[in-house]
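G., before I forget:
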Amino acid sequence: MTTTSQSITLTMNIAEVPGVGGKIAPEFRKLGIRCVADLLLHMPMRYEHEHEEQTIAKAGETVSPNHGAEANIAVRGEIATCRPGFSKRQPYEATLQDETGTMQLLWFNAPWMRGKLHPGDTIRVWGLAKRHGDYLQMINPKFAPYEPEEDGEQRSERFTPIYPASENVTSTMIDKALEGVLEPAIALIDDHLSDTYRTELALPKLADAYRMVHRPSDPDDHRGGRRRLAFDELLLLQLGVMMKRHHRREYLKAVPLKLNDAIDKHICARFPFDLTDSQREVIDEIAADLESERPMNRLLQGDVGSGKTVVALYAMLMAAASKHQAALMAPTELLAEQHFTSITTMLEGSNVVIELLTGSLKKSERDAILARLESGEIDILIGTHALLTESVSFNSLAVTVTDEQHRFGVYQRATLREKTSEPNSSPHMLVMTATPIPRTLSLTVFGDLDISTIRTMPPGRQPIITKYVARSQSDDVYGYVRSRLDAGEQAYIVVPVIDESESGLKDVRSHFTWLENGHFQGKRIAAVHGRLKRNEREAIMYRFRRGEIHALIATTVIEVGVDVPNASIMVIENADRFGLAQLHQLRGRVGRGERKSLCVLIADPATDDGRQRIEAIVAIDDGFEIAEKDLELRGPGELFGTRQSGIAPFRVASLPGDIQLLRLARREAKKWINANPTLSGEADALLRKRLLKAHGKALGLGDVG
Ligand code: ADP
Ligand code: MG
């Protein structure tokens, strides 16, 4: 080893860490470990309790024959005999002996054991010991060659951290890499929390926390360390979110919009139905925001089909009534087109000017729209991401609506905000989502949003029946679907991919052919996917809506927002391949009319995860519960909303498990920001620096203070 502990830094490349080397470094990088700091943040998943070594005789006493007991023990000894199993069923067998006795070791289903042990080897084994007849036995024990400690003493109790590893980088390799850098590295870590503050919250020093996590001295040690590291993550995010919120509320101004009874009546007259109480409630919340010159930053959540569109339209019409502009941004062209069509229908005969801007417009068409937008002639602009390009500039943008927010990140929201002409001004922003933010998360990433929720469905909705069947039953399923098509209903058949591939997943093309020549013979069916040209897709959707097409074979392009009330049947192929929230979205395409709707999931799930998602979607129909379940199943690694939002995922904290800690962090962050909204004090300098480094870019904190 040439690296001395003095030369270790937190930013030192993983390739230079003693014992890692350039060859294996890329494999470490794949695990997210690029430098020493990453190594410190690579949290153990669990700890293996290595018991103190005992003699075999002593172990025999522990595992008492009277109790038929078993116990976790560790023993060191010499291999006396070993015998590979002769057939698959027979275990690999060895006897271990020390000065005090012998013990039998058995490994079942372990072809890899062949040649691993030899008589005369001294090994350490640990695991669950049992008594079998009159001898002691360990089944599938862990073992390692015995390496005497320098002082020749037996090893004492140790909690070995087990790290998330990969095929090429084992937990032990990570452990070894850490061993060389841990102490010198943590000696370099300054704490951004003061001693007094830490004492108050019973948090260890930052440097100690790393040691406690990687080298715990007792089972509770690592919990304390982890708590500190998780708290820091949550605190930084909360501080960031609140700093941003504070800035927006104090320094940014929006146009206050007018509302009175006449305007309200005028707007509501445009809707082809009476608003539900729930819609009315959220509209009141939104309208109150819009009347203020504090920019609205509100999340509107409501399950699929709960009627968010008219709420958005209400807000946009308030802008138009005050002679300002509004923009509605949808995640796909299909959805933008649909919003455009339904809103145009509702506004027919009024003098509100509405246009659709998507990526597939000709340049001349686009230029014409942009000119009319800039002159203020257009009141409402609907579009996709295309609304975000620089050439789009409004005359007086007062309200923006972003539909299905889970598809967008905060970056995009920030760009939309810059579409107002005045500096320090912001449009009122409404973000709609059908995938409700789990309550636990609404406090984190979305902590800067006020939330309105539509809790009830429009009247007359029938519950959707969800069924799960194995692939072997597909013929029955399609036979039944056919009978309902014959009765005048319409269906969506959802498959995961467009083209046939080696994955063996159902694809649009072959499934279309199969149905066309089989169960759906004589029915009008069409294929819809993301590679169709806009006008082709539009034509198909138009005909589907009019009932001229009976069934659509589609990818998840229909996932979001598509609204055809007569479509009452959905079949989802390879259902285990879709996410839980996604399945719920898809299912939401049916159950929109007066008919009893059916959603059939066809799958032979290959993984536990897939099976659990299917079980969940069958059992749960409430969108909020689905969202919580989704969070639970996905676990901390893939936090909903954080990845999409561009905010770095947590490395230590995990939700909903750390909800208590999150509340604490939130409370603390509030205190901090109330006392000093930009954390400009000298005592907070390090905290502020780390905050900006962690979230400055994603939260757009550059302009704050
Ligand atoms: P989502 O919240 O999923 O965007 P939509 O706004 O698309 O839901 O509304 C779903 C369907 O419910 C549409 O066909 C819409 O016209 C209808 N709808 C919305 N509000 C009402 C209401 N108050 N009464 C009756 N139908 C409504
Ligand atoms: Mg919608």
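The CA atoms of residues 545 and 564 lie 6 Å apart. Residues 407-413, 636-644 have pLDDT under 50 and may be disordered.

More on Monday.
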